[in-house]
Amino acid sequence: MAEADIALIGLAVMGQNLILNMNDHGFVICAFNRTVSKVDDFLANEAKGTKVVGAHSLKEAFEEWNKTELDSFLIEITANILRFKDTDGKHLLPKIKDSAGQKGTGKWTAISALEYGVPVTLIGEAVFARCLSSLKDERMQASKKLKGPQKVQFEGNKKSFLEDIRKALYASKIISYAQSFMLLRQAATEFGWTLNYGGIAMMWRWGCIIRSVFLGKIKEAFDRNPELQNLLLDDFFKSAVENCQDSWRRAISTGVQIGIPMPCFTTALSFYDGYRHQLLPANLIQAQRDYFGAHTYELLAKPGQFIHTNWTGHGGSVSSSSYNA
C-alpha cells in the first residue's frame, strides 16, 4: 500500500467528498471506515482511478472472514478479542504475555500420531509453537543477538495480501482436518472400530471450540464416499485447495522473506506437496539406513523383497536387529 499524506476516518457523504477533494489537490489519502466493506466499495467506485488507499483493521478482517467459508467459533472470538479494550481504553491483547499454556490435548494427539505413524503435522507444530512461546526469557535474549532479514515490513497491496492470508488459512485448515481424519482412520484399523466419520464431524459442529460451518462439508464428503481415504481426494476439498494454492504459496513466501514464523502454514503446505508427489527423497533415507545399520530396502522393481547392500565393499555386516534408527 502506498504511503499516505493524510488519513481520514469516516466514509459518509462528507468524508468521501473531503477525500476526493484532497486527492484532486495532489494529496495521497488513506480512507478508513469501521465497516470494512464500505472502504472496499468506495475504492471500487467513487475513488476508482485515484491515489486514495484504504485501511483495514485486523478486527474487521476477521469479521469479514467469519462471513466466508472460514465461519467458525475461533474466527468469531478472535474478532471479539481484537476489539476488546481494557479499563484504560486501550486494547487488551498487546498487554497479554506471549507465553501460551496448554492442558495436554494437543500433546496427546501428537503422541498418538507418532505411535500410529500418521503425519498429523499441524497439531504437532501447534504444540511446538506453544512450547517455543513459553521460552519467553530465552527469546528475549535471542532477540538481542540473532539477526533476521533487513526487510521486516510488508510492501504491496494489503487488501490482496489479506486475501492471500485468508486463503492460506482455509487451505491449512483443510489439511489439518484431513490429517486428523487420517489419524481416526488409522486408530479404527488398529482397534477394529467402525467409525461414522461424517457423524463425528457433525458431533463437533455444536458445543466445541472447533465448531464451524466447514464441518458440514466434511460430512458431505464422507456421505459421498464413506471409504474416502483422505479429505484431499474428495472433489470439493480438492478444488478448494487448488483454488487457494497460489495465495497459500504467496502468503508463505512473503512471510518467510520478512521473517514471520508461520509453523502451521508452512507444515501444511509441505504436507500437501509431499502427499501429491509420486516420488519422495525417502529412498535416500532408506539407503542411508541400510548403509549405517543394514536395515535393508525395497526396490521399486521388486516389491516385497528386502535387500541389504555392502555399500563400502569392506568390513563386517551389521545386523539390523542390533541397531535400530
TrEMBL record:
Xref: Pfam families: 6PGD
EC number: 1.1.1.44
Keywords: Gluconate utilization, NADP, Oxidoreductase, Pentose shunt
Domain 6-phosphogluconate dehydrogenase C-terminal, residue spans: 56-312
Top-level taxon: Eukaryota
Alphabetized GO MF terms: NADP binding; phosphogluconate dehydrogenase (decarboxylating) activity
Keyword NADP found: yes
Catalytic activity: 6-phospho-D-gluconate + NADP(+) = D-ribulose 5-phosphate + CO2 + NADPH
Pathway(s) served: Carbohydrate degradation; pentose phosphate pathway; D-ribulose 5-phosphate from D-glucose 6-phosphate (oxidative stage): step 3/3
Gene3D superfamilies (UniProt xref): 6-Phosphogluconate Dehydrogenase, domain 3 (1.20.5.320), N-(1-d-carboxylethyl)-l-norvaline Dehydrogenase, domain 2 (1.10.1040.10)
Biological processes annotated in GO: D-gluconate metabolic process; pentose-phosphate shunt
Quaternary structure (record): Homodimer.
Protein's job: Catalyzes the oxidative decarboxylation of 6-phosphogluconate to ribulose 5-phosphate and CO(2), with concomitant reduction of NADP to NADPH.
Family: Belongs to the 6-phosphogluconate dehydrogenase family.
Protein name (Swiss-Prot/TrEMBL): 6-phosphogluconate dehydrogenase, decarboxylating
Native source species: Chrysochloris asiatica
